[in-house]
Structures are given as C-alpha cells and as structure tokens.
Amino acid sequence: MQSTKGKIFMKRLLFLLLALTCLAPRVHADDTNDLVEDAEFVIKTLLEDSRQSAFRSMLAEAYGVMIIPSYVKAGLVWGGAGGTGVLLSHDREKGEWSAPVFYSLASASVGLQIGVSSSEVVMVIMNQRGLRAMMKNKVKLGADLSVAAGPVGMRGETATSGNLVADIYSYARSRGLFAGVSLEGGIVRLNNTHNKKYYLDDFNAEQILLKHQGAVKYAPSLRAVLARAGKSD
C-alpha cells in the first residue's frame, strides 16, 4: 500500500507537471502551426552547427526524429520537465519524411533542484522497433525503448548504424549549445488534441507516419529541411 508521504509526493509531482505544460511557450495557446515552425527552427539550428557532423550522419540513417522546441524543467526538491513536439518518420530508400504527429514528453526527479529552465530537445530514432513503439499512446524511455545521449563531434563515421546500439539518441540545447543528453525515465504520450487541431481529422499515428497521409499538404518546409540534411554529407 502506498504510504501517506508517497501519495503527497505524487500529488505534488502531478501538480508540477501540469504547471510545466502551462509554462511552455506557444503550446499553451495550442497553436500547432507555430509548433511546427518552431521545430523547423530547432532542426535548422542543429544542422547549421559545424560541430554536429555526427548528428547529420545519424539523421540520414534514422527511421524518425522527434523535435520538442520547448522542454521546460522546474523544481523545488521535487523536479519535473515537460514539453510538446512533433515526430516525423523517414523513408530511408526515398529520402523523404512524413508529415508530423504531435507528442508530449514528461519526466520527474527527486533531489536538490530550484528554479525553471527551458531547452530544445531532439530525439533521433535509429530503428524500426523504436518508430513502431513511438506510435503507441504511451512509451517509457529506458524501459520500453533504450535511449542514450547522442554523439557529438566532427567525424560522421562515429555515428554510423554499426556503432549505435540504442533505439533512440537524444540532444538538448541550452545556453546556445547542443549536446547529447539522456532522457531515460521520460514518458512520451501521443497528443491527440494537437493532432486533431492540426489535421482537422482523426488520423492515427500509423496513417501519418507509415502510410504518409497528409505528406504532400502538411509541414512541407520542415520536411524539406530534413530531406536536404540527409543528402548534405
């Protein structure tokens, strides 16, 4: 049976995660088009970084990428983080990317942590298993899928599929620099509210990511940036 202290902790944690959702810029207004534009800006910034050759090599071989433009962390002994972003799948044979599907990411922690901060998060999905798992309503990173900090460096050969063993590699930018970061313990959930608003229809994740419904009409600029990145190295 859960102790009284445990129940109090969970209540405080849930309140904190709810507050984080409200803190995230633009997302609180449910402006899905702005969220897609923000995701494009994040990817452009990462790709233009001359130190990220390893990331560009990974992206060319990836099965998908999730981009969270604003991942807000807050804490006062109990800590949490949350943000909303988009997932796109990659047809590696054609070099084409799907339309986006909206997801939310949340995590919790315990320890000395005071204040609020925001970062941009990018997760590169390196196999079909990872992409399939992401299409579920809920996935726990580190349990349902393995996740590790993404490699950073000039040499693209360090980031070939033969050298990568995790399902997902993640990056975060704070203070102007992108670096590999572990998101183990984070919970990824399908954001049906955002998906319905963006598509004005009840498409599911598989229809968009694998059957490419909406691929021609939606997020053409973001998809083009990703497609060019895979051909740049």
Give a brief description:
This protein is an alpha+beta fold and 233 residues long. Helices cover 33% and strands 33% of the residues. Strands 1, 2, 3, 4, 5, 6, 7 and 8 form an 8-stranded mixed beta sheet that branches.
* Binned strand content: 25-35%
* Helix and strand sequence: HHHEEEHEEEEEHHH
> In angstroms, what is the radius of gyration?
17 Å
Multimeric status of the protein: single chain
What value does the average pLDDT take?
A: 80
What structural class results from the helix and strand content? alpha+beta
- The geometry reads as globular
What percent of the residues sit in helical stretches (DSSP H or I)?
A: 25-40%
Note the gap between the termini: 56 Å
How many helices? The count is 7
Largest sheet: number of strands, sense, barrel closure: 8 strands, mixed
Poorly predicted residue ranges: 20-29
Number of strands: 8
